[in-house]
From TrEMBL:
It comes from Bradyrhizobium canariense. This is Transcriptional regulator. The keyword DNA-binding applies. Signal peptide: none annotated. Residues 19-73 form the HTH cro/C1-type domain.
Length: 227
């Protein structure tokens, strides 16, 4: 059956606009839509540009691949109004050698920009000395996500659901912080250095990280703590 269905030009235009809106709402490119639906990229491009419409079976193929209702292709969702965020004009400068330091036998964390409270991102300078999970202790878990980049030495990253990875100088890893994780020294030097950026919507992220790092409270197991 032909993919083309003769319809008034206005309907073609509306279908194209709705398809584009649905695609963008899902963060997909036309090529990705073609891969998910099995439809030709050229066909999808023509539909989006209002140059052709689709038969009912092709509409079903399209919506099934995108896991959406056919009605969404003919009833455009109005764009959400942009929510303006107030400019806080906050800033903090971190000088070399400054920061709040937590030191254990196996690592040293230097928390930066501690004069700002309620940060959504917590920058940490990390010195990693532990060479085994037995030395390090329980895997760390906390709210949010984080990025760790090695600035000196080699670091072994252990996580709850993946095999360990070795990171060299300049290598980085982005991970879900609620997943158990640990950074270990995998180089020849007594310690490895890195920068860790932790982020979360939790307003007490800094306090939570500081408590966990100092082991004043044991890292939680199972579901993250209520924040």
């Amino acid at each position: 059956m032909s993919e083309i269905m003769t319809t008034p030009e206005g309907v073609n235009s509306q279908l194209g606009q709705c398809l584009k809106a649905a695609r963008q709402a899902r963060g997909l490119t036309l090529k990705q839509v073609a891969e998910r639906t099995g439809m030709a990229l050229s066909t999808l491009s023509k539909v989006e540009n209002g140059l052709m419409s689709l038969t009912y079976d092709k509409l079903l193929q399209l919506t099934s691949g995108l896991k959406m209702e056919i009605a969404e292709l003919f009833n455009p969702v109005p764009p959400r109004p942009e929510q303006s965020r107030p400019v806080t004009a906050r800033r903090s400068i971190s000088r070399a050698g400054q920061g709040q330091v937590i030191t254990t036998g196996f690592y040293t964390y230097t928390y930066q920009c501690t004069d700002l409270i309620g940060k959504r991102m917590v920058p940490i300078l990390a010195e990693v000395r532990a060479r085994s999970l037995e030395e390090f202790g329980p895997l760390l878990r906390h709210a949010g996500e984080e990025y760790f980049v090695v600035t000196s030495g080699r670091v072994a990253v252990h996580t709850e659901f993946y095999a360990p990875e070795i990171l060299g100088e300049g290598d980085g890893i982005y991970l879900d912080s609620t997943m158990g994780h640990a950074y270990l020294n995998a180089g020849e030097a007594p310690s490895a250095q890195g920068v860790c950026l932790c982020t979360s919507e939790a307003p007490d992220l800094y306090d939570q990280l500081r408590r966990i790092a100092s082991r004043d409270v044991a890292p939680f197991e199972g579901d993250p703590p209520s924040l």
